[in-house]
Specification:
A hairpin with a 5-residue loop joins strand 4 and strand 5 (77-78). This protein starts with a helix and ends with a strand. The chain is an alpha/beta fold and 451 residues long. The longest helix has 15 residues, at 374-388. It has 4 domains: 2-110, P-loop containing nucleotide triphosphate hydrolases (Rossmann fold, 3-Layer(aba) Sandwich); 124-134 and 148-172 and 234-355, 3-Layer(aba) Sandwich (Rossmann fold); 177-233, no CATH class; 363-448, Alpha-Beta Plaits. The strands form 7 sheets. Strands 7-17-16-8-15-14 form a 6-stranded parallel β-sheet, with helices on both faces. It has helices at residues 2-8, 24-35, 79-89, 103-110, 150-161, 236-246, 293-296, 303-316, 335-338, 342-355, 374-388, 423-434, and strands at residues 15-18, 41-44, 58-61, 70-71, 77-78, 93-96, 129-133, 166-169, 178-180, 198-200, 205-207, 214-216, 230-232, 252-255, 268-271, 284-289, 318-326, 363-371, 396-397, 401-408, 411-420, 442-448. The structure holds zinc ion (2 copies). One zinc ion is lined by residues 190, 192-193, 208, 210-211, 213.
Amino acid sequence: MELFELLKQGQPHRIAVTYRKQKIGEELRIWQDAKNAQLDILIGTRPAVFTPMCNLGLIIIEEEDGYGYKEEQAPYYHAREVALMRAQLGEHKVILAGRTPTLESYYAIKTKKMRYIGPEAGEDEKSEIKIVDMRQYGFSRKGARPIISPALGDRIQKALTAGKKIIIFVNRKGFAASAYCPKCGLVLTCEKCSRGLAFYSEEKKLVCNLCGLTKPLPSACPQCGARYIKHKGFGIERIKSQLHLSYPQAKICRIDKEHDTLPPDAQIILATEMIFHREQVPAADVVAAIDLDKALQIVNYRGNEKLYSLVHRLKTIVRDELLIQTAMPEHYQQKEFIHFNIQKLFDAELRERKALSLPPFAHLAAVSLRGKDLEHTKRIAFEVYEKLKDKDSKVMIFEPTEGLPAKLRGKYRFNILLKAKNPFHLSDFLRKHLAGIRHSGVISTIEIDPQ
Ligand SMILES: [Zn+2]
Ligand SMILES: [Zn+2]
């Protein structure tokens, strides 16, 4: 909407906006206007990429690495891929914009399929990334490492004294990672996903970060009746209350899904990824990422890419110093990372993907099978695997593995991964061999190049 206002100012263009939950009549009118050359600019969310715009000259994909471009339900599509495909069919151009290119786009630039339009990214000699090795601090009696290391605490104090701003970046929600009964050891979990629930202390509620299930914190243990529920791990709320204790004079504020006001005199900003979705992304003298290790634990070939683009984003908001707290320092110690040369990091990542034939050098398809009965779903997954196996020498197929998470919204999940050089060959193969397969009680879906 802000973009709409901006483009409208003093411009004679005919502009329209489409968005989710728009009235169907209004949406239809916009489509007709677009088709009948009654519209110059259309701003829209994901499905807008299909608009039959007359004389289409340019499609701009803002924040091309955003997760929102992939439609997770039928019809499955990726808005960026649709835009690129439309460009191949028509005459128009596509601009992919963003703070960091995806590895696919980076590869397309290298192979001259796309052109890079500045700014030139180079080695950043003056601002090294500081790695704080959390292993030196050991565990407390409760078995936890400090959330804010003494080294970071010291840096925060110095920055505050010098009148500087600090951003602490966290990737967790809620007050604590999990809630449990200290008497019988029961961990409060989501019945549908079998995953620990996150505890939000401000609202006194438990939330499943997978399916969104919310319930009040029980006053007693549902298993043994003990009247005391404990929590462990940490979330953004706990860090905030700890910061208040350590720096009682500092003005501390929090930016996440639930909190988005940023007072101009804030000294310490505690933020999740939501900070990058703001109209104006605030910058700070010192930026500290305290739990990036989670990105490395992604059991997915995109782990490194996600880590690099996140750090790249953090680099854009830091003026003096970026600190990373980690219990796995060996992952960050390479020179290219410390000086943060994203080109060299991406080049190394491309070499590795090539060696392992992973995207963008090959294409993957994940056949996902979901059912309420664990054994039944597992058996079907292996049956499907047997049917697909050894059918085509150009398609590699891997044994079924448990989904991540293994259970979601009441359904157990298994995935079969397939790999091929040519994406069209892969989808033809699946169409041909999966067409006749039907199993009661098990739903199957196919995802091409899972994110
Ligand atoms: Zn109990
Ligand atoms: Zn759940």
